[in-house]
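Risk register update: the risk of archive-format incompatibility is retired. Evidence:
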Amino acid sequence: KARDMASPEGVTLLIGLMFAMGHGCLHDPQFPWIQGTLSNPAIRDSAGRVERLRSKALTYLDHVVKYFG
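Archived output:
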């Protein structure tokens, strides 16, 4: 099912993103990579979705750190 992130890792990742970027980050046009990853039909399982979102979040964080560093 799309957006299935019910694993402990998935829930923790979503809570972390919401804490860092605001509770509406799942639909915020400022962060299109979140919605795009959650609704990507090519990602067929929860573990793959969690891993892909984690990877994209770390890439985003790396860019933020470089910008402010």
